[in-house]
Amino acid sequence: MMTPETEDALAQLIKEADGPLRIVGGGTRPIGRSTGAVLRTTGLSGITLYEPGALTIVAQAGTPLAEIETALAAENQRLAFEPMDHRALLGTQGVPTIGGVVAANVSGPRRISVGAARDFMLGVRFVDGAGHIVKNGGRVMKNVTGYDLVRLMTGAYGTLGVLTEVALKVLPDVAAQMTLTLDGLDDATAIAAMSAALSSPYEVTGVAHDPATGKTRFRLEGFESSVTYRAEALGRVLARFGTAAEVDTDWATIRDVTAFADKPGEVWRISVKPSDAAALVAKMDARAVQYDWGGGLIWALSDGGDLRARLGEFNGHATLIRGDVDAPTFQPQAAPLAAISAGLRAKFDPRGILNPGMMT
User: Fold this and answer.
1) Which domains does the chain have, with CATH numbers?
2) Do 28 and 94 meet the contact criterion of CB atoms below 8 Å apart?
3) Distance between CA atoms of residues 42 and 242, nearest Å
4) Taking the CB of residue 161, how many other CB atoms lie within 10 A of it?
5) What is each CA distance from 323 to 31, 254, 264, 282, 328, in whole angstroms?
6) What is the pLDDT of residues 150-193, one digit of tens each?
7) Alpha-helical runs (H) found in 74-118
């Protein structure tokens, strides 16, 4: 196992590599089938710049996520995209790192209101497959010409380069939070209710449905007086679906899909149009499902086999998060998109040594 402690050392290591490298951050998210000698980024750690007034933080890729969240909380700020913690679901140990979050574009329930991790990225530094140090972006949002490497690297799972430093926009924390809950809705009705809430002007920051409990949840955040007003108004919008009651809710359990944590079986993450979600779930024959993002994200617990084969062609993508199934981890790309992806990998990693097999 290799754990370089400087960017230059990482660049030299990659330049001299004579075989494939498996890029690992904190080791909490072993998704995909990459092979090779393990290269950890945890030696590149520390917050290098934090300007609360500018809502900007810069940190080395191996910095523990908890360290960043603690620094932000001290200034009443947060990572608004609330990155998921995969440890319970995947049964892993270790410490999540900010580089891992960025590499996998990890985003939680608030994605529907503020965007994904990719939308908060300002800049990156990384080492490509030839050992070159590359910098792109900066500390402020701006228009981009040519390759937008900041967003390209976000969600690339280390296949285009090894992140060494990331710059992100942060947001102020909220003063109050409230969750309204409807009980007893079937999937199609719950999705209709979630769509109604998201279409309202009341700034819902989380909408999720759990068929196992029959609970459909709607989160509101902001100043206390605003949350109270919006909750009353949203309750009137939802009245045709039932009486919405205020219920204490731990959104981290929804974010982290902890209901599937100790249950055997494969876990799939399916991204679809909300209007297609209920029909797709009916075709899955899954043991359990959970809906997030207003129905746009489905978590499915399956008893085996290729879930994609049961779904057939659909407008979306399915990712195998947990389990040993003879199927690609990520949704196979259409030929034109696959050609573009292969071209990018050939440009940034000409020897094909960075996380080979990860995206297949």
Assistant:
1) 7-172 (3.30.465.10), 176-255 (3.30.70.100)
2) yes
3) 49
4) 26
5) 9, 20, 9, 21, 12
6) 999 999 999 999 999 999 999 999 999 999 999 999 999 999 99
7) 87-90, 98-103, 111-114
